[in-house]
Fold these 3 entries.
Entry 1:
Amino acid sequence: MDKTTTGWLSGFLGVLIFSGSLPATRVAVADFDPVFLTAARGTIAGLIALALLVALRERRPGRDDLVSLAIVSLGVVVGFPLLTAIALQHMTSAHSIVFIGLLPLATAIFGVLRGGERPRPAFWAFSCLGSALVVGFAISQGVSAAPLGDALMLAAIIVCGLGYAEGGRLSRKLGGWQVISWALVLSLPVMALVALLTSPATLAGIGGPAWIGLAYVSLFSMLIGFVFWYRGLALGGIAAVGQLQLLQPFFGLALAALLLHEEVNAAMIVVTVAIVACVAGARKFAR
């Protein structure tokens, strides 16, 4: 396989793993405080990442890479997990997942600003169409029902898009799993301290599903998924591979219905199918 195809396959695996993040977070915040959940997942993933870096004797990133790693940490280790965890206290995971349809556009914009990529005009037309469908769906469902949750999800999309693009750019130099590992290690001291300060007074009331949700977002959402995702962005292009995120609502809605028994109405399915259809057009004109 050529580099581009390998990048798309790797990116697809990353999206497939990320699709379980919001349903898992929704389950976890039923029993865990959002701040603790964010810090705990970062701490667990950070300790594993530190062990991998030490065991494999990875070379430390250069001083000029620290700013980029800090952006990755703030975007995907702290910002997106915290904002989505709080948002999911005000909405169902099925509703929040649809906002993920905005991530390809945010990632592509930051790919231009930070990665120096230059997609063709037709690419932006397809990407904006997918985003418009998502926003239109949110409005049709009545954003006034959860204005705080919607605002938090939009903020999460912006910081996540920046973290994705910055990580994809840096992965060309350091490698995909190295970028997320160093970003986790960089934030580990703060995350560990916050996790300790916000830990539950007792674990007696924490149910099994919440522990499973914490385990998933710590191991898969925070570390394993990024190994594939950043590799995909580095090999296939940030803007191009980023369009695969349009598939994430489809997978996420299916998980929300199967695992959480949340209602997935016809409008959600129609919008999801429509934005997935935008992937082909956006991919064709990405370069």
Entry 2:
Amino acid sequence: MENVLRPLIVLGGTVVLTLIVGWLVDRLLRRIDARHPETPLWGLLRRCRLPLQLVLATALLGASHDQSGLLHDHRAGIAHLLALALIASSAWLVVRIAVAIVDASYARYAAAHRDPARVRRVRTQVTLIQRVVTAVVAVVAVAVMLLTFPAMRTAGASLLASAGVLGIVAGIAAQSTLGNLFAGLQIAFGDMVRLGDTVVVDGEWGTIDEITLTFLTVRTWDERRITMPVSYFTSKPFENWSRGGSQMTGTVFFHLDHRAPVPEMREKLHDIVRECPAWDGRDWGIAVTDTTPSTMQVRALVTAKDADDIWTIRVTVREQMIRWLTEHHPYALPHIATTSAPLPPPPAKHVDEPAPRTGRG
């Protein structure tokens, strides 16, 4: 009977104690969060409840499995398995705590600053910091788990002895990966490009949707995703429309007949932008920028608060101006000659009239 009750008491006590401690910690964090709503850290730390319970459970089982008498012949293997579980759950807990601290810091910064560019920069840095911390903790946890195996500890000395040669070989083999890794850090802390920035890459217009340590994703206007290595943005030129502020100036070009009523077009443009919600009220204008033997180029200039609004106001001006010209000034639209122009009639020939006769005969 004792062989049955002892494992049940150990396992049951571990489960009950784990659940009680997890519930108490969660309740404590909930009360602190309710008293300090200005600090989101306590609410975010509640996500650590499950890894905390796993750490506590594996630690208790590792300390008491000898007294349980369960699978006594395999206690060395069970102890090793519990040690691996403890390392993995501890790494999970550390990652959750680090993510909660970083997210809380970003939330407070975003609430205190109203500049969208600075908030996007911090958001980019926070995202990459989270990924770096996760990667480092995962690598350390895997290394510690491997060192728990006796064979790995025996091979450790020889691995360290050949670390120089292995480092050179790994550096050559992973040159591209390491280049992308350092490029990702340069993007994060060099403020070259941020999450949410509007960019033009290889003729594609889109928004930065994701930045990792090795690749970057651009979401285009038609919902496509372009994935490219982050080293592209440190080695090749690209357009960043959000750099230095989100306000933008856009242009719309019209190729019209030389008889087009430019002053009336200027008044019509003013009416269009005043009725367009996307216009920010900063500037507008029309000017003749070029001429050809058959047409002239008219440029309409408008402004907006960001890239999305500048696109909206440009297509609105283009559509309404063309419709207005078609309805009220169709002669202003460019014409294509389909037949040869008629030649002028030749000049009439003047014939000298005979002098009148005088006298008889």
Entry 3:
Amino acid sequence: MLLFAFLLLTSALASQRHGAQAESNLSVKLQFSSAKEQNGVQDPQHEKIITVSTNGSIHSPKFPHAYPRNTVLVWRLVAVEENVWIQLTFDERFGLEDPEDDICKYDFVEVEEPSDGTILGRWCGSSTVPSKQISKGNQIRIRFVSDEYFSSEPGFCIHYTLLMPHHTEAASPSMLPPSALPLDLLNNAVAGFSTVEELIRYLEPDRWQLDLEDLYRPTWQILGKAYIRERKSRVVDLNLLKEEVRLYSCTPRNFSVSLREELKRTDTIFWPLCLLVKRCGGNCACCHHTCNECQCVPTKVTKKYHEVLQLKPRSGVKGLHKSLTDVPLEHHEECACVCKGNTEG
């Protein structure tokens, strides 16, 4: 009887211990689930301080392969000298989980300006590579987040370099109002942007969305001759022609021309700065013994209209006047070899 009672008591104590352990495990799971519902990731890790004295890079774990799930990483780059800026350049190999409704909700990398907590940008997906970012001071923060579900590859790699404030590149004059720059400097700054949206953001950071909407409002004044006459240029890939024709014959070919130089408009900035036009080019096989100089010249010229963004200083007012306009450029449709002179005797 004593042995039977002892066994009953031992079983009861074990059952109570297992019950308490199960309740504790359930509580931990509920807390973890609640945390996941709040931010979709594990608790943020402490940021890693990287002292920057030379060029370097940081990247997602396992780059250029798929990064791990359920990860939060924070880097704070701090330049050794106080009077320098830090420039971030994203590697062309960039790919994170795609956004939902154009919002990076799940996996993303973002850049923050530590001096005022401003988020300079948050990026995900793989359709475009993020643009260069420049700090306002000698520090900048980078945060990478991946949730518990899908991961992508290759992740990201960010190269950082030090910049002296007076040695900045074309995009760095964002610290100064564009209207305060000479036209030549502004022209160089404009050349650094790859989309109209980026350019308008730079020109009008406070009202760029309104300016962008105004720019594309479909009024007859803006549509202009390029739509009415239906004579916009079409890009022709001359590389599809036979190799012999491409190398040796006198044919219309694609040439890049500067709009300011072509139109002789030094008082205006155009975006894009250059356009492709068809101009005569190639070798001429003039075999006449009386021909002194054989040149490839156009025999049929067509004027075509190209829609571009035009920036002009306002007369007596600060700021730039922005408009979509059509610029006429000559395109050579047909070419021929012409003898330009005769040999003596």
